[in-house]
């Protein structure tokens, strides 16, 4: 079975495992860490944490009752992430949930015994987080938004909504290994779409601004904003820059579009936080994380902001609007 087929298979199976009737738990207080690369006030990350804790509760684990959930909000700065990861490992929890490669990487370097359940890491085999998808091995497993090639689809979406685009700037974060794979996947499909791609590494707001301002005068230009904690943390800035320079931009997360971005294509990572609760439940009951298969998404969503499209002077075909999962007017 090919890897892409396997991702689809385990992703489809995901809906059958969690949310069974809660089993009787022991009186022992268990401990679960969760590392979130955002500020505590970030509504997107708050929703993810809520879905995770709700999922645990439905499986019989109540925060402050039979389980203690230790959340660390560390933002997108790598040094803060490393300090927060160290704090969680020092607590010796029964399991740790990591949002993305920025958090999972430091955790994996710190412990080979504490189970780590990652969410939102693209192509975790090629990115070096697991040995294979069916039996990850060691102490790491989790949930992936798909192979690198699924992120290349964002370029196709950008071309469909803004066919005049001939030059594309890809904003990524080099600290996270999967981001480089996404860039390569986009570069691979670009010639077939008549697009030239330039990639810009950005680790903070200033670098995002510098990259966009240096590119804004490019004729027939467009932007792809890869999903990572840096771009998510600075999404208000990113959207403001796209508006100021009238640049059509495509994103990997739908909340960018709901906040004023043009178009997005990808799975909803928040859904996988709820699924992560099922793996924590199984691990707390004795399962080996290395035996739990990495699961993929069950759905990819196309979201379009029609108001933003009109502001950019873009006319979107009725057929394209009809295939969208959500159109914001």
Could you describe the 3D structure shown?
- This protein is α/β, with parallel strands linked by helices and 329 residues long.
- The chain folds into two domains: 3-146 and 268-291, 3-Layer(aba) Sandwich (Rossmann fold); 148-266 and 301-328, Response regulator (Rossmann fold, 3-Layer(aba) Sandwich), CATH 3.40.50.
- It is 41% helix and 18% strand.
- It has helices at residues 3-13, 43-58, 78-90, 101-110, 148-161, 177-189, 205-215, 229-233, 235-244, 254-258, 269-284, 306-311, 318-323; strands spanning 30-36, 67-73, 95-99, 116-119, 140-143, 167-172, 196-201, 221-225, 249-251, 263-266, 301-305, 326-328.
- Strands 7-6-8-9-10-11-12 form a seven-stranded mixed sheet, sandwiched between helices. Strands 2-1-3-4-5 form a five-stranded parallel sheet, sandwiched between helices.
- β1 (30-36), α2 and β2 form a beta-alpha-beta unit.
- α2 (43-58) runs parallel beside α11, α3 packs across α4 and α5 crosses α6 (177-189).
- It is elongated, with a radius of gyration of 20 Å.
- It starts with a helix and ends with a strand.
- Mean pLDDT is 91; it is low at 1-25.
Rounded radius of gyration (Å): 20 Å
Q: What is the H/E string?
A: HEHEHEHEEHEHEHEHHEHEHEHHE
Text of the CATH class of the largest domain: Alpha Beta
Number of helices: 13
Offer a quick outline of the entry.
This protein is α/β, with parallel strands linked by helices. It is 41% helix and 18% strand. α5 (148-161) crosses α6.
Topology, please?
Blueprint: H1 3-13, E1 30-36, H2 43-58, E2 67-73, H3 78-90, E3 95-99, H4 101-110, E4 116-119, E5 140-143, H5 148-161, E6 167-172, H6 177-189, E7 196-201, H7 205-215, E8 221-225, H8 229-233, H9 235-244, E9 249-251, H10 254-258, E10 263-266, H11 269-284, E11 301-305, H12 306-311, H13 318-323, E12 326-328
Parallel strand pairs: 1-2, 1-3, 3-4, 4-5, 6-7, 6-8, 8-9, 9-10, 11-12
Antiparallel strand pairs: 10-11
């Amino acid at each position: 079975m090919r890897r892409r087929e396997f991702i689809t298979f385990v992703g489809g199976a995901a809906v059958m495992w969690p949310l069974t009737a809660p089993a009787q738990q022991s009186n022992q207080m268990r401990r679960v860490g969760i590392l979130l690369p955002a500020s505590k006030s970030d509504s997107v990350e708050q929703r993810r944490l809520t879905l995770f804790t709700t999922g645990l509760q439905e499986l019989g684990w109540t925060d402050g009752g039979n389980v203690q959930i230790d959340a660390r909000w560390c933002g997108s700065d790598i040094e803060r992430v490393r300090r927060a990861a160290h704090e969680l490992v020092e607590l010796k929890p029964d399991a740790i949930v990591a949002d993305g490669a920025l958090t999972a990487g430091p955790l994996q370097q710190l412990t080979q015994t504490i189970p780590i359940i990652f969410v939102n890491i693209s192509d975790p085999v090629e990115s070096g987080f697991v040995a294979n998808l069916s039996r990850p091995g060691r102490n790491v497993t989790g949930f992936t938004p798909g192979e690198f090639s699924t992120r290349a689809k964002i370029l196709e979406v950008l071309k469909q909504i803004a066919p005049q685009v001939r030059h594309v700037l890809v904003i990524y974060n080099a600290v996270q290994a999967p981001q480089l794979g996404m860039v390569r996947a986009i570069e691979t499909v670009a010639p077939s779409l008549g697009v030239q791609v330039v990639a810009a590494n950005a680790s903070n707001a200033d670098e995002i601004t510098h990259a966009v301002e240096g590119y804004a005068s490019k004729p027939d230009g467009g932007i792809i904003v890869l999903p990572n904690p840096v771009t998510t943390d600075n999404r208000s800035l990113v959207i403001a820059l796209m508006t100021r320079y009238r640049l059509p931009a495509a994103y990997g997360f739908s909340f960018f579009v709901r906040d004023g971005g043009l178009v997005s294509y990808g799975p909803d990572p928040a859904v996988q936080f709820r699924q992560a609760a099922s793996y924590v439940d199984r691990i707390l009951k004795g399962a080996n994380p290395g035996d739990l298969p990495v699961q993929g998404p069950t759905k990819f969503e196309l979201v379009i902001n029609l108001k933003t499209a009109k502001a950019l002077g873009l006319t979107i075909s009725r057929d394209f609007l009809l295939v969208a999962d959500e159109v914001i007017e």
